[in-house]
Amino acid sequence: MVTVTSEQLLELMKQDPFLKSFQLRVIKAEKGEMVLECDLHDHLKRLGNIMNGGAIMSLIDAAGGLCLLTSEEVQNQVTSSLTINFLRPVSKGPVRASGKVVKGGKNLGYTEIEVTDGDGKSCARAIGTWFLFR
C-alpha cells in the first residue's frame, strides 16, 4: 500500500505552476480525506472584493483530486466530471476546501468537496469524478 504524505502533497502543489499561486496549505491529509487552505489573496478576487468563481473551482478541483492521492496505489488523477453549487460569496479568508472520497474504484474515484470562508460558512459544494492512474 502506497499513500501520499502531507509533505509530498505540498511539494506536488509547489511544482504545479498554476496551484503554486494559491499558496495552499495542507491542513489534513488522511486516507480518503483532504483539507486545503489558502488566504484570500488579491489575485484570487474579482470585482466586489469576493473570491473569483474560477479560483473557487480550482480550489475544489485540487482538494477533490488530491484527496484521491491519499488512497491506495493512486499515482495520479485527472478530472473527468465536476459539478459545483455556489451557495454564497467568499469574502473572508482563510478559505478552506475539504475533500472526501465517496468511492474509489479501479479506474474512477468519486469525491465530495465543500468550501468554507474565514467564518466557517459553507460557500460552495461539489461532487466530482476523477480518472485514476495506478
Question: Describe it for me?
Answer:
With 134 residues, the chain is an alpha+beta fold. It has a single domain (6-133), classed as Hotdog Thioesterase (Thiol Ester Dehydrase, Chain A, Roll). 20% of the residues lie in helices and 43% in strands. The chain is built from two helices and eight strands; from the N terminus they run αββββαββββ. The chain has a six-stranded antiparallel β-sheet, covered by helices on one side. Strands 3-4 form a two-stranded antiparallel ribbon.
Number of strands: 8
Provide the CATH topology: Thiol Ester Dehydrase, Chain A
Give me the secondary-structure category. alpha+beta
Shape: globular
Q: Indicate the low-confidence ranges by residue numbers.
A: none
CATH hierarchy, class:
Alpha Beta
Quick overview of this protein structure:
The chain has 134 residues and is an alpha+beta fold.
Question: What labels would you give this structure?
Answer:
134 residues, Thiol Ester Dehydrase, Chain A, six-stranded antiparallel sheet, two-stranded antiparallel sheet, 2 helices, 8 strands
Give the helix/strand layout.
Layout: H1 6-15, E1 25-30, E2 33-38, E3 45-46, E4 50-51, H2 53-69, E5 76-86, E6 95-104, E7 108-116, E8 122-133
Antiparallel strand pairs: 1-2, 2-6, 3-4, 5-8, 6-7, 7-8
